[in-house]
Amino acid sequence: MPEYSYVGKEVPRLDAVEKVTGAALYTADLKFQGLLYARLLKSPYAHAKIVRIDTSKAERLPGVHAVLTGEEIPYRFGIYMSDKYMLAYKKTRYVGEPVVAVAAESEELAEEAAELIEVEYEELPAVFDPREALKEGAPLVHEGLDEYLHAPFIFPKAGTNIANHFKLRKGDVEKGFKEADVIVENEFTQPMVQNVQMEPHVSIGQWHPNGRIDVWTSAQSPFAVRYLLSVGLGVPLHRITVRVPFLGGGFGGKAGLHWEPLVVLLSRKAGGRPVKLLMTREEEFNTAAVRQGMYARIKTGVKRDGRITAEEILYIWDSGAYADYAVNIARAAGYSCTGPYDVPNVKCDSLTVYTNHPYGTAYRGFGHVEFHWATERQMDLVAREIGMDPLEFRLKNAALPGKVTPTGEVLADDCGRVDQCLKAVAEELGWGKPREKRTENGKLQGIGIAALWKAPAMPSYTSSSAIVKLNEDGTVLLSLGLTEMGQGTETAFAQMVAQELKIPLEKVNVVRERNTDTAPYSWQTVASRGTFMDGNAVLRAVDDLKRKIKETASDLLGYPPESIAIADGYAFVAREPDKRVSLAQIATCGVLPDGRGVRGPLLGYGYYTAEGLTFLDPETGQGRPALMWTFGAQGAEVEVDPETGDLRILKVATALDLGKALNPLLVKGQIYGGVVQGLGTTVMEEFIFDEKGRLLNNNLTDYKIFRTQDIPDKFVPILIENPQRNAPYGARGIGEHPTIGIAAAVANAIYDATGVDFFDLPITRERLWKGLKGVKK
Amino acid sequence: MSKHRISLKVNGRLHELEVEANKTLLRLLREDLGLTGTKCACERGDCGLCTVWLDGKPVKSCLVLAVEADGHEITTIEGLARDGKLTPVQQKFVEHGAVQCGFCTPGMIMVAEAFLRENPNPTEEEVKEALGGVLCRCTGYRQIIDAVLDAAKEMRKAST
Questions:
Q1: pLDDT of residue B1
Q2: Strand positions, DSSP E, A171-292
């Protein structure tokens, strides 16, 4: 009998053939009868009162079916805070914010109609720097903050621009600083950037005359879209169907709700015809959600022997015009604030602050890329201050099993090992060995390291489920609520199902489209939670199916269910394998020798709910926020041209304690992709605004992302497998982690090479050159 | 908008169509011919995702007007695999994990296929240079480059 061992193998993705042949259909590829096309008129001002809107000319244009303004659709939406209107209501809060939406028979017509709309604005004082926004008398982005509904773990301050103030207090920082021999304080920043998913946001909505709503959308989390639509529009869930076809990348930027309510409302106004809104690339930058900017200040107290005694941390998040995910990003960064270290005394304030920038959302790493830039630079700077090797300093303070996290969680013995990750990366970089820093042609080389950790950032009570259905021929259909946006979870789950049922992988199919009417519930496809949570749900669904297979087989074979085994497409008596029935025979029901049918169609259901998590104390942040920690370390080897500021990334090593690599081919893909995204943030990506808050680089000519020629000469993925007991096969999530430590590792390497310190990202060639010239050598 | 009558071959099939003067080849393929395998991600020539072949040479179809394709032969991603058999490049993309979300994959493959016909024995640097005009946000390009190098090897083997 074959072994059917798939878990841990490099199996190609299930959907690869559809994708390499161009057959895979994404949302923008779908065809609809009577489809209307939406275009947006956007605000030219960062902060302005809407005095008057005249849409009459647009409405008279033949072929225009609906024109909507904010006044007509005063519904508020928001995943953690209901602060966002679909169209600016009374005032605009950022340049690029939609003010009027048009649906017409062609895109050109809709565009033409949008140009005929007249809007009179009265410009208001705007605020762009979140530190300015915190000051007394700063312009208020949201005057009605106290009216907004928000999640219980978010703490807005009415009358200010603070959308969330997360506080963490562990131990006694005053005492900790008194114990310190040296105190080091630094500031760090990161600008706003964009997720730049290759597929722009696209949604099609249809509000049928009978009150039913259909949505097809490029969303990561169909159930969140359905729920937020329901709450915002006051339509019950059973009247809303959300479908997600193939998804062209997300990285957090398609989590939660985006433009789905707008197309649905346009459809209502257009008498129920379907309406499609496909964002242009320019709108992806100007109008869609982006990654918030960050300012960090870290004060670290340390003993000469290298023990950290206290840390005082301030994270300020430039959330832009709306809170969206940024309120939870402040919380997640706050409870993980120290990075993967054992710090006895911690005070952290992490604030989500409204400004008149585009609004912030989730982007791979969920705040961790940003704050690790600060903490992992700080680790090097502190080590230097006390004359200790940065690797040794990290290892000395590492958050090992048994140590206590900032929220008071004692790390379990199976939580994963940051020290092993650090050592593996250090070895790969040749850490501690003598190196020639100057090459023969005058270039400067250096190495740097960073440690990282991240837990899924989510409410304490999220859940996932899965359904495994046995078909009449013994093949199996796996149904998920988790979406597939490229990360490969579907394939890993199919491997698990095949292995558990001991059937060939070819006999497992995963339902392609996500449809909220038929798919099992999953909270969201975010936070690197899918492998762990939905994976556990899949395993339980398989167990449930197996139990039912055994019951039917037991009825037919006359042996108790416990004595039955399943393999190779049969259920059989374990000790007498020739007493057997095929899975095909029992899929719809069992048939007794006299022809009577018993039992019924076989379907396994399983769910998993995050275990043991709690709300965090509003004053101290103490509690249990983390379902699992994935620890890692990254190292970079760089070469700098001291004449030009050119930076070459020679090598990036990434070690992650992922518990178990369910599919190393896909894991490596996540690592390569994450590293390159992280490098983009490190050396080239940033939003550049003018003094009026207008984004100057709103296209891929002026906003560069990495191309093939930019990637590191060498990637070294290191998969460390200390399994976690409550995880599927021990596997932890790693989707976001390869992006997290890169920026600091590269900057630490640049210091090693050149002696120049960077505190602000990105380290562009120009900034590097200026840094080099500023240092007299 | 004035209309023009054009005739062009797409994936070996002849089409005679009336198109607006400002219609791009990309929109013609996607909207009029239903060939949605060719993706649109910037519509200004930055991303390369809409790459197809015009008389065998890769072009960004968002920068070509449909009328300019009059009398020419176009090949899209849908025209590569024959009778369900993948090309070596497609096959190697599958095997090497060079596909994640898949949105850049058609453009990437169209460029890679054309490149390997010009240069059947490329170095890694040459592959990087050749693919530099197609953006991908998922893969970090490593497995794409590996797939193209491996496909080149496979194709050389097949031709000797």
A1: 74
A2: 182-190, 202-207, 213-217, 240-244, 275-278, 290-291
